[in-house]
Specification:
About 40% of the residues lie in helices and about 15% in strands. The chain is an alpha/beta fold. Helix 1 crosses helix 10. The radius of gyration is 18 Å and the shape is globular. InterPro entries: Acyl_Trfase/lysoPLipase, PNPLA_dom. This is NTE family protein. Keywords: Hydrolase, Lipid degradation, Lipid metabolism.
Length: about 300
């Protein structure tokens, strides 16, 4: 098995689409934005390069096997999900507890880390410790869950990069169709934020740990870069580490790329971050993304084409 490294990444191209991580609601919002653009006549799924991280890797794989319109319709038609607390209560408006716990653990690990590389090693070590105490059943269950979300298990012919990190070493990893890894496994690894997902003998974790939830730096050399970021470019790590999306966008522009970004509006931010795994928020997140996509389509058409 080979994983893509920086030396084998596409060096340059015309159009790159960056799909950032953002949990379940982030995935729905990404699909909504792309469907809104598509509905208004702009098809960004024809990008020469698509970079998918975590929920964005799921979206990238979904778009390889279905149209944006079909994917949006499936989200809106899904059976409604209930929150974990009664509607209108303080608990219902607050974050779902497992997500809040995860964010608190991450803040603790970040506070003890020296830099991004040290953070990756520490996150990997913590995940492996949890994995050692588990019964191992999560692996097959998670793969089945991810497979059920994908319209096709085949890598697309267009270049799609799926990010992750090696939990054993903390090293960044990028999968593509030449990596000898099934698309389902690549996406499962990119979305594994708690327990590590193993491909062969190698344990992997969420691609958001590589640098940030977007990993837009992988689009270096592409003339036009469109970044869809459910988390709005926010990051828990110190700015001086140089891994924030804003820093990567500045570097892309300095390298000659024209970069456009789409973030959720301030009115919709409550559906992401700590509430990112609230399944009841998927339909409104998708609808919000759809309206944003339609609203931005005219302005982005000249940029993209």
């Amino acid at each position: 098995m080979n994983t893509t490294t920086s030396s084998t990444l596409p060096a340059s191209g015309e159009r790159a689409l960056v799909l950032g991580g953002g949990g379940s609601t982030g995935n729905a919002w990404l699909i909504g934005v792309i469907a809104g653009l598509f509905d208004a006549g702009l098809d960004v799924t024809t990008a020469d390069l698509t970079i998918g991280t975590s929920a964005g890797s799921t979206a990238a794989a979904q778009l390889a096997g279905a149209t944006p319109t079909e994917l949006l319709a499936a989200i809106l038609a899904a059976a409604p999900h209930q929150r974990t607390a009664p509607a209108g209560s303080d608990r219902a408006r607050g974050p779902i507890k497992p997500v809040a716990d995860h964010l608190e653990r991450m803040r603790t690990i970040i506070a003890s880390a020296d830099d991004a590389a040290d953070l990756r090693r520490r996150v990997g070590a913590a995940a492996l410790d949890v994995d050692a105490a588990s019964d191992g059943s999560w692996q097959s269950q998670w793969r089945a869950t991810v497979a059920s979300r994908l319209p096709s298990e085949r890598w697309p012919q267009r270049t799609v990069l799926v990010t992750a990190i090696d939990a054993g070493t903390g090293e960044p990893v990028v999968f593509d169709r030449h990596s000898g890894v099934d698309l389902v496994d690549a996406v499962a690894a990119s979305c594994a934020s708690g327990l590590p997902y193993r491909i062969g003998d190698h344990p992997y974790l969420d691609g958001g740990f590589r640098s940030n939830a977007e990993n837009a730096d992988l689009a270096a050399g592409y003339r036009r870069v469109l970044v869809l970021a459910p988390f709005g470019g926010r990051s828990l790590v110190p700015l001086e580490w140089g891994t924030h999306l804003a820093t990567q966008v500045d570097e892309l522009r300095a390298g000659g790329s024209i970069v456009e970004t789409i973030f959720p509006t301030s009115e919709d931010e409550h559906m992401f971050g700590a509430n990112a795994m609230d399944l009841s928020l998927r339909p409104p997140a998708a609808r919000a993304g759809f309206e944003q996509g339609r609203a931005r389509a005219a302005q982005l058409t000249e940029f993209w084409r």
